[in-house]
Amino acid sequence: AQSVSQHNHHVILSEAASLELGCNYSYGGTVNLFWYVQYPGQHLQLLLKYFSGDPLVKGIKGFEAEFIKSKFSFNLRKPSVQWSDTAEYFCAVTPFSGGYNKLIFGAGTRLAVHP
Amino acid sequence: AAGVIQSPRHLIKEKRETATLKCYPIPRHDTVYWYQQGPGQDPQFLISFYEKMQSDKGSIPDRFSAQQFSDYHSELNMSSLELGDSALYFCASSLVGTDYGYTFGSGTRLTVV
After folding, report:
1. Which tens digits make up the pLDDT trace of A46-100?
2. Which residues of A are less than 8 Å from B103 in CB distance?
3. Phi, psi (rounded to 5 degrees) for A71
4. Dist. CA A68–CA A25, nearest whole Å
5. How far does the CA of residue A51 sit from the closest CA of chain B (Å)?
6. Residues pairing with A38 in the sheet
């Protein structure tokens, strides 16, 4: 069965620190990969997605992620975090098959950024 | 741009009551997914519909049922509610065969007391 592992459940950073959140998935075929952010009390918002092409994907709010097929990884990065980045971050995967497969989410990483 | 609309935003029900949650997908999206997110949990897939037919089923209790109507909106019906059903219920929509991805609604927060 497909699964998604997020390495860190809680991350605490100071403003301006660099961020890298790990994500690994288990699926042998072609996948579509996503990072979603959920601010406190709000719904999931898409940060970025990878379907094909350049494995370095740039998203909103200065986030980027790199797809490394050989490592089954899709780590999220941001060079300098802000207090407003405090949120929960979910990595998600769906097998590539035309787009109507369910998203499988990781357990999430709760990020707290201190001023 | 139009987003995924869910109603109601908040719902309080007593144990053993029934609840109906509604989801209106983005116009022209043909697929709807329902997720349940308990407190501090990751979203768990419940069920999905493509072109008004059930396309996949996850960990949806037998007490729950859902359908997609001719206008593509979907309803999640929950009966014999239990305290453990308290959660945030998300709906997402997508368009098959495209790379537009999935768009989530704001969710319905159900509290069972």
Report:
1. 999 998 899 999 999 999 999 999 999 999 999 999 999 999 999 999 876 655 5
2. 46
3. -105, 0
4. 11
5. 7
6. A44, A88
